[in-house]
Fold this protein.
Amino acid sequence: MPRIAGLARSTYFHHLSRPGHATRADPEPLVGEIRARTANGCGHRQIRMCLVHEFGQKASARTVLGVMRRMGLECPIRAADPWRRYSSCRGDAGGKAPNPPERGFGADGPFEKPGTDVTGFKVAGSKACLAPVYDMAGKEITAWDAGRHPGMNQQKRLPAMLGDRLPDGADPILRSDMGWRYQHPWWRKELERLNIRQSMSRKGDCLDNAATEQVFGHLEDEFYRGREFDSYERFKSELDAYIIHWNTKRRQIRLEGHTPEEYRSMSLAT
């Protein structure tokens, strides 16, 4: 047999003793599928985590980046958007809260340190506002409300959604800036009723609420930038879908590749 194959006897038996390696499947279809989950796509690290955790494919971040370049796919670069610079600060509008975390955004488990803020978008020639509550441990958007105007009607819808999500025994410290809505007597009393303590960043110090601002940056990158919405209703529907994607499908490096929902379920089960 070695003579027929035209190989030296030692070479023939060497290859015979080593089974051939299975050819890896072409990752391009999966890379394209994962990137298409959000309107503006996502980066190579996000795609790699999905390949590993959802499809069981071993791939390095560098390999995925090379595949994306071969496919002509790029990750959008974050840029400033003047429509996102909504400010609700009106000075002392009712009551200030202490600043206990002092940029200590780390938390040992879900619902320990949620944060909240408001951001604005240009939609159909007008504006829309999003008010989320963001869990700093699990990166989950635990409550949110989108409206046409950033008023107390929008703010009053948040505590009910947040209260329904709080597990028994939770002792959260809700982080916000010093906007008038967070100093409003109704808001303060409602948080007290839900046993939620308040924490307010200091005026003019954007880093004090940086964790929540970071979420707005990702939302800008993956959902909003470069898009036009012909109606507020379409915007709100797609925004709700993106937030559900964020919680259930979008994987986080700091959560070791898990989604926020997976992290919350694992944490509360222990």
About this structure: The CA atoms of residues 158 and 224 lie 22 Å apart. The two ends are 61 Å apart (CA to CA).
